Amino acid sequence: MTRWMAAKSWGLYLFHYLFIAMTAYYLTMYTKFPAVLLYFFVAAAGFAGAYLANEIIRRIPVLRWFVCGIGGKKK
């Protein structure tokens, strides 16, 4: 688990807040869920969205460099 988190932590850090803010906004505006349920939905969406965005961005070299600042592999 620690190796996986070490490899993914930068991307998760970069993208998590976008999905937390988006999910929280739309769920509070358009639903009447209780606060505890909103918290769990927002947490799950923040992690899942950040993970998906990270995986997509990491596979496109130009975006990886522009968005994450990660260049190609050093030889």
Question: In words, what does this structure look like?
Answer:
- Helices cover 81% and strands 0% of the residues.
- It has one domain.
- It has 75 residues and is mainly alpha-helical.
- It has helices spanning 2-30, 35-58, 61-68.
- It has three helices and no strands.
Descriptive labels:
single chain, 75 residues, mainly alpha
The number of helical runs is 3
Query: Shape from CA axes?
Result: elongated
What number of structural domains do the residues give?
1
- Count of beta strands: 0
Low-confidence stretches: none
The rounded distance between the terminal residues' Cα atoms is: 27 Å
What structural class results from the helix and strand content?
mainly alpha
Average pLDDT, all residues: 87
Please compute the radius of gyration using only Cα atoms.
15 Å
Q: How much beta, percentage-wise?
A: under 5%
The largest pleated sheet is described as:
none
The percent of residues in helical segments reads over 70%
Q: What order do the SSEs take from the amino end to the carboxyl end, as H and E?
A: HHH
